Structures are given as C-alpha cells and as structure tokens.
Amino acid sequence: MATSDLNPEYCSIRDGVVTVNGNILYTEICHDGDEPFIIKAYRALGISYPKFFKMDNLSKTGFLAAEMLLKGTSADSQELKSNIAVILMTGNASLDTDLNFQSTINDPAAYFPSPSIFVYTLPNIMLGEICIRFKITGEGIVFIDRELNGTVLYEYIDTLFSDGITESCLFGWVDYMEGKAEAFISVIHKEMITESFNQDSFNSFIQRTFRISNHQH
C-alpha cells in the first residue's frame, strides 16, 4: 500500500479554524480584541494544561495542534516514548517572540529584559513543549524554511525509520507571526511504510494532507 493510499491522522490550524482529519472543531466567529484566536480555541476545545498560558505564541500553536491530534491516542500515556520522533518546520521561527523580547530592552529608561519571554526565543522550545506534554524522548528537530519542504521531511523520516528505534514520526509545519497562527501536524507510523514509500508518494501525502505547496512543485 502506498502512502498516497493512507488516511493519515492530522490536525490543521489556519485562518481561524481548527480541524482534525478534515472535521472542523473550532471556528473563530469574530475577531474581537479580548483574546487572541489561539487562546479562544484552547478554551473552546476544553483543554486543561495551565502551562499553556506561559508559552509564547509559536509554542501555543504547536501545542494546540499536537494536543488535538494525539490526545486520547497511544501517544497520550505516562510512559516515556523514545520510539517517537518529532520533525517540525517553521517559516518565521521565533521571530514573533524575538520582537516581543526586543521591546523589553529597546528603551534605556525602561530597560527590563523578561526572562519568561527570553526562554522562548528559540523555535526548538516549541518542540520541547510538545515533547514534555506527551513524554516524548525520541529524536527531535525544527527546520526553518519558507514553506513546508517535503524533500527534507521525507529524507529525515526515511532515515529515522531505519535507525532500529523510531516507530512513529510526528511531523509538519508550525508558524506564528503578527497574530496569524498556522499549523499542520500529522503522524506517520513505521508499520504504514512499504517499498512504495518514496519521495513522490510522500509529496502526494503532503499535498493531500496539508493542502499546501512544497518545494517539489
């Protein structure tokens, strides 16, 4: 069975809408200034994870997508999981948070660097928050690119599935800038893979799942 024949589990966050496997779970009705979309979605979806409110916007976005995708699955258990890898891509990385931190040190007369903001000035922290929530201790990496790059993801996943340890890969795209939250996260299992797993079939998988272009097109 080729990857193009699979029905992968995925979560999408885009344009004020949260979907899982194509089913809409939350839609932002109005763009009021009371709370950001990502926080309104968190509340509406009934999630309870107090640390969420301490995260930066990129981490909130990635966390919410992973939570909706993995909650209640075998990945949502108390055991440490060295057999799950997390491979994510981002376009703006931590720039939204970097600018926020910069604003705390711009004015010499009001110079007050915020440690709680500074800790999130690396996109890898977003990955770390997901791994902490689901007790994932396997391989983890965040790539920075203009858009979701199927070539990079395929090569990395293919390598990991040959290491004798990795059984599942959580992968996709997480980005946040100027109030725009975007995420496309999916999970693929080694048991799904056959000889037909190649670059072309993976690109098809990416296109069908995420509905966005990658560098192969």
Short description:
This protein has seven helices and seven strands; from the N terminus they run βββααβαααβαββα.
What's the CATH H-level homologous superfamily? Thiolase/Chalcone synthase
Biggest sheet strand order reads 3-2-1-7-6-4-5
Low-confidence region ranges: 212-217
Basic shape: globular
Care to count the β-strands?
A: 7
Strand content: 15-25%
Key descriptive features of the protein:
alpha/beta, disordered C terminus, Peroxisomal Thiolase, Chain A, domain 1, single chain, 22% strand, 217 residues
Task: Give an overview in words.
The chain is α/β, with parallel strands linked by helices. It has a single domain, classed as Thiolase/Chalcone synthase (Peroxisomal Thiolase, Chain A, domain 1, 3-Layer(aba) Sandwich), CATH 3.40.47.10. Helices cover 31% and strands 22% of the residues. It contains seven helices and seven strands. It has helices spanning 37-44, 57-70, 95-102, 115-118, 124-134, 150-160, 199-210; strands at residues 9-14, 17-20, 23-27, 84-90, 140-144, 168-177, 180-189. It is globular. The model is unreliable at 212-217 (pLDDT under 50).
